[in-house]
Each structure stands twice: as C-alpha cells, then as structure tokens.
Specification:
There is one protein chain. The strands form 2 sheets. Strands 1, 2, 3, 4, 5, 6, 7, 9, 11 and 12 form a 10-stranded mixed sheet that branches. By secondary structure, the chain is an alpha/beta fold. The relative contact order is 0.15. The protein contains 10 helices and 12 strands.
C-alpha cells in the first residue's frame, strides 16, 4: 500500500478528498476545480484516493499536479473506506469528500466555510448539485422511511415521478433555498472533522451507496445538524466511473439499501425486512436489465 500523505506545511482553510475509480479525464478536472477555488483565502488541501484504477487517470493527474497527494490502497476498497483513508491524510477542521466526476464551482469553499463558522452545531453541509445540462440533482434528501423506501424501490425505476420517490428525494422543495435536511449526497459533501470523528467516520461496511444516508443519520443521532447550501454549486457527471461496470453498480446499490434497512429499522418494522429484500431484488433485476440495454447511461445515487 502506498500512503501518499503529505501532512507538512501550513494548515489550509479546508481540505478535500477525491475518491476515484476509473474516472478518466474527469479526475484531473475535479482536482483542478478544487485547486482553482481560492475563495476561502487559499485553495484547499487536496488528497486523492485511487481505488484501483487501471485507466491511467491517476498517472495523468500526477504528471499535471505532482504536489497533490495520492493514496493508493492497492485495491477497490469502496467509497466509505476510501473516504476515511483520504480524511486521515488531511488536516483542516472542515473536509469535503467528493466523487471524481464532479467540478466544484468557484466560491464554493467560502460559502461552505461561512456556514460552518456561523453554526457550531453543523456537522455536514451539502452543496447544490447540478447535472451537466444544468438541471438540479436532488442531493438533499429525507431518510427513507418504510413506506417511501418500499414505494421507491418498487416504482422508482419505472415511474420516477411517483409520490414515494418525490417525497424521499424532496423533489417538491425549491433547489435554491437553504434548509436543514436528513442527509446529503456523498457525491460532494463538506464535513466538520470533530463531528465526523465523534461518529467514527464513514461506515466501511457500505461498499458503494447508502454510506451517505447512514452518515447523515448517525450525525443527527449524535446531535449534529445536516444542512443544504445552494450558494455552493457542483456539477456532477453522474456515473462516470460506474458506467464501466453497470451491473456491479446496481447490485452494490441494492445491497447498500438492504444493509441500511437492516441497520436502522427497529421494532415491528423489522418484520418487513423480507418484503424489502424482495422489493429490492425485483428493482435490482429491472435496473440491471436497463443498465445492460443502455450501456454508458448509469443512474444516480438512488
């Protein structure tokens, strides 16, 4: 395992961890967008965690930006484990965790740090995430209750406008209004280090998907707030890494959903776990078939 950490030098205004896997040219674009954001007085400290890429993207990044720290675990350990490895290499009190297929807009750092400075109980803060065509991506969502979870699992792939999916994704809320929320997409989320340390970091039992839902819930259970700040914007090329293995991505998503339900459903709701398993299996089969029929067009984070 190559550590890649370089902890020397003055403390940066904020840190950013980019978790990458086969991201191609998106990786360099993501890192360059972070390094270009001087809005907080200086650019962030950037650490890249490469989960076993073989596409040459990390080597290209090193040629362009030899001073950026790169952690190479030697295998694909999953998003949560990659995030924790990267965070351990950073130093600032606020650290962002990003996918490698995002571009962070100028000014995001200052907007996010201002919120953390003003609100001592803020543990996690999500930016406005936009699709490449400029349309909003529903990044600030509700905890998936049993009814919404089952309704979304059964109908989300075929009828994305159904009431369960709309409620779970907060699709009827204005995307330009700051608000508290249950959780924010792990595609790009800023975290207070003390809050993250208090809850033990990202749960590494999630390989990909639902690690962000779980983190938001654990932060709120520990007394921290999770919020959404549209003044900071990120463009996300959904699934730039996952398109290479779409079926694997679909399976990981549905395994993560079941792990979350098994971890958080209590009392009588646990009796519905077999129903959830069946619903997720059916939805997974549909999405896997769609992924095979439409290569190169993966879905988002659920």
């Amino acid at each position: 395992m190559s550590d890649g950490c370089d902890r020397a030098g003055a403390e940066p205004p904020w840190s950013a961890v980019v978790v990458t896997y086969e991201a191609g040219a998106h990786l360099a674009a993501a890192v360059e967008s972070l390094l270009a954001d001087h809005s907080a007085g200086a650019p962030p400290e950037v650490v890249v965690v490469d989960n076993g890429s073989t596409d040459g993207s990390t080597e290209a990044l090193r040629r362009l930006h030899p001073d950026v720290a790169v952690v190479v675990p030697g295998a694909n350990l999953g998003y949560a484990r990659g995030a924790n490895l990267g965070i351990a290499c950073t130093t600032a009190p606020v650290v962002a965790v990003c996918n490698a297929d995002v571009v962070v807009s100028p000014g995001a750092g200052a907007a996010m740090l201002a919120r953390f400075a003003a609100e001592d109980d803020l543990g996690a803060l999500g930016p406005s995430i936009r699709n490449p065509d400029g349309s909003p991506y529903p990044s600030a969502r509700r905890d998936p209750g049993v009814g919404d979870a089952l309704g979304h699992a059964l109908l989300g792939a075929l009828r994305p406008g159904n009431r369960f999916t709309r409620r779970y994704r907060n699709l009827d809320l204005a995307p330009d209004v700051p608000r508290d929320t249950d959780w924010c997409s792990g595609a790009a989320v800023w975290l207070r280090r003390t809050a993250l340390d208090e809850v033990g970091g990202w749960d590494e039992r999630y390989f990909l998907f639902f690690e962000d839902v779980d983190l938001g819930r654990r932060l709120r259970r520990a007394g921290w707030r999770v919020a959404y700040e549209p003044a900071a914007q990120v463009i996300h090329a959904l699934g730039a890494s996952r398109h290479r293995r779409p079926v694997r991505s679909v399976l990981a998503h549905h395994r993560g959903a079941y792990r979350y339900a098994a971890a958080w459903w209590r009392g009588p709701r646990r009796a519905l776990l077999p129903v959830a398993a069946a619903a997720l299996a059916g939805r997974g089969a549909v999405e896997a078939a769609l992924a095979l029929a439409r290569p190169g067009r993966p879905g988002g984070r659920g």
